[in-house]
Amino acid sequence: MSVEERVEKLQNDIAKLHEVLAKQGWNTTGETDIFGRPFYVPVDSEHKATVFNAWTLMDCHNPHMRGFWSAAFGFFCTFFSTFAAAPLMAYIKKPTSLDLTKGQIGWSNIASVAGTIAMRVISGWLCEKFGARRAFFGLLMLPVPGIIGIAFTQGAAGFIICRFLIGLGLATFVTCQVWCSQLFNRKVVGAANATAGGWGNLGGGITNLVMPFVMLGFLNATDENEDIAWRLCYIVPLALHMIAGMFVLSGRDLPDGNFAELETSGAKQKTNSKVVICLGVSNINAWILVITYGFCFGVELTMTNVAALYFYTYHGASPQLAGVYAACFGLMNIFARSWGGIISDASNAKYGMRGRLWAMWIVQVIEGTFCIIMGVVTRDYDSPDGNPDGSKFGKVVGTFENGGYEFSLEPGHKNYMVGGCATLDLTTPDKVVREPGTNSSVTLTTGTCGTCIDLGTRLLIGDNEHPNCVRNQDLLGLVVFIMMLFSTTVQMAEGLHFGVVPYVCRPALGIVSGMVGAGGNSGAVLTLWTIFKNTSVARTDDGYVILGAVIVSTSLLMFAIYFPDMGGMLFKAGSLKYDPQRVKVPEGYRGADVLDHSVAAGADKVKEVEKETKPVGNTTETV
User: Fold this and answer.
1) Residue 582 class from Cβ within 10 Å (0-12 exposed, 13-18 middle, 19+ buried)?
2) For residues 511 and 616, what is the distance between their CA atoms, to the nearest angstrom?
3) Calculated CA dihedral for residues 30, 36, 40, 42, nearest 10 degrees
4) How open is the CA angle 383-318-78, to the nearest 5 degrees?
5) What are 562's strand-pairing partners?
6) Residue 204 to residue 304: CA distance in whole angstroms
7) CB under 8 Å to 33, separation ≥6 — which residues?
8) If 0-12 CB within 10 Å is exposed, 13-18 middle and 19+ buried, where does residue 329 land?
């Protein structure tokens, strides 16, 4: 073998090694940003990461993976704080605390997601103007007054206002998705966006899972003072926001640097607000995605608000277990939204944009079907909100079982009677009454003494008199299983949506992301207002059936999405003269993440010339 052949073989082997290492997420070719800083992952010509896998997830270097983890954790914190009240509602609503009515609880749920509608649109513009990183930090600090204020509120009005302020932080979803879209190549952006968004949404599941147990800790610390304990719980989301804010600031706006340094170097155009707003709002595809995203992400927001109380009131679970069951909905974000992004990228690789759209529609239809099934399972049984025939039970003696016996509270106790098919969690009283079986009733002292009955510090009583109640049907396990399947498809649909969004209008990526994100919150407000707060829809399970039908119906709008260069669900690329981008992109205008690398190349040449010459006295000597 000649020397030339050996060299060629060696070069081929090195190229193959580079390829193998690149697939694992290693930048072995020495690629740097325009200022000479090395990248830690393989990048394309625009310096966006081309790999997103398990190997890269173990990295946290700037800019790509630091941005990813900052985006995911920051969004997680706002989700956690926004829905921290939901698993605590069994305590907050009591007369000894804020004494909230069902209507006031509904208003607080709506307030927690309503303010973010406008805020998400605004945050899209903030991303274009100031960069996702700085916009992210501002949105993390925005809810802090509400988090502090809710711990001191004394009435329903203050509680609703504070939940509104805290909910503004959900606009970090837009900064999360824009930031990842600007850091990752289009071949992997679906998976990156879906994973960051999904693990952010996970905050809703974790708050349902964790906060009831945080509450138990503070109950022990405050000698069972429920009113003080739930307020102290908000120390946790406050700390999370502070930590996330510092983490986000440590990131970088774009792969090549922050907005200020890139604009100063001339590599980046300054954003023209009028242009990007006009481009975003004039794109018909964007408006269709606004509506359809409202019935996947909007559904998640709705379920995060209502699920814990549903399991407590309908199925007789304790607040702690109800929180765990409700958490199962959000916990599907560990993998489900990423699945959606991965399916989107895989469909794109095989079928192009048309594959992305078909996958999105199919999953959303399945989502709606599971929602309907979840409601149908219990709707033929009696509930605290009414019976199938529209009637309602009066109050009954609240009872519980222990050691094979049935017990009640003393007849004079204020909670002796409970609503028909209802459940009540309360502090264990000093005495309980063992209901007569073969013997007469006996009053027993609670506690740990030799003759006492040890019931712990909390007690759960309810209507065990009517066998047709939902709480007495042992349907909880089945409903939770169906809900987990429902949740999986909800999160997958979300990931599939943001596999499409980066293609809608790149020069106005922030605006489009803000619009679609706002659509998610709009869907939640619409759902909570028209279904779950609507007095004509008395039962929560009937609400699930109606919601499922709406999800399936609105998904048909996806058939109208069309990209002239990539096609739509029914039409191939170029087969229609129709262009959904009604206002055209001005000639020469670039998006916020599109850089002129020739400027940097020119700067590098100048630096090379400067290195080749050095001053000697009053003259210049060439080295």
Assistant:
1) exposed
2) 54
3) -60
4) 100
5) 568
6) 6
7) 39, 47, 63, 255, 256, 257
8) buried
Average pLDDT, the chain: 91
The predicted-structure confidence for 325-365, as pLDDT tens digits, reads as follows 999 999 999 999 999 999 999 999 999 999 999 999 999 99
Q: Compute how many other C-beta atoms are within 10 angstroms of the C-beta atom of residue 487.
A: 26
pLDDT at residue 614 is higher than 70: no
CA gap 9, 383 in Å, rounded = 75
Asked whether the predicted pLDDT for residue 489 surpasses 80, the reply is yes
Amino acid residing at 147:
I
**Cα-based distances in Å from 405 to 83, 197, 435:** 38, 49, 7
Distance of CA 92 to the CA centre of its chain: 24
Q: How many CB atoms lie within 10 A of CB 204?
A: 28
Average pLDDT for 234-257: 97
Q: What is the Cα gyration radius of the chain?
A: 29
Phi and psi angles of residue 420, each rounded to the nearest 5 degrees, phi first: -60, 130
CA dist., res. 337 & res. 494, Å (int): 6
Helix, strand, coil tally for the chain in percent (to 5): 60, 10, 30
Is-contact 295 553, C-beta < 8 A?
A: no
DSSP 3-state of 28: coil
One-letter-per-residue 3-state SS of 385-434: CECCCCCCCCCEECEEEECCEEEEECCCCCCCEECCCCEEEEECCCEEEE
Cis (ω within 30 of 0) for the bond into 580? no
How much is the pLDDT for 616? Answer: 47
